[in-house]
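Encode chain A's predicted structure.
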Amino acid sequence: MRRWHTSAAARKCVQCGSAFRDAETQRFCSRSCYWKSMELDWPDWATLDRLLSQKSTPAVAADLGVRPSTLYMRLRRRRLRQSTGLIEDSPGAL
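Encoded structure for chain A:
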């Protein structure tokens, strides 16, 4: 007997490519694959500072493939870490 809301055919995970059988709307085989798909490989701070000096924040965010609010939050957290002394003020500091 067929289970409700499941696909009869095996689907491929968008992240790792492994085959799985589950809900027709599901794109990932596991939660860990979903979480890995949300990770972003940010450029180092020197590169990011250089890009921001050349372009606007929304333009840099579009180049990185993120929302401008995501980039604003990353810059805000960096500024907070610098003000509390958790990281040094050098432009290339991560």
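The two ends are 55 Å apart (CA to CA).
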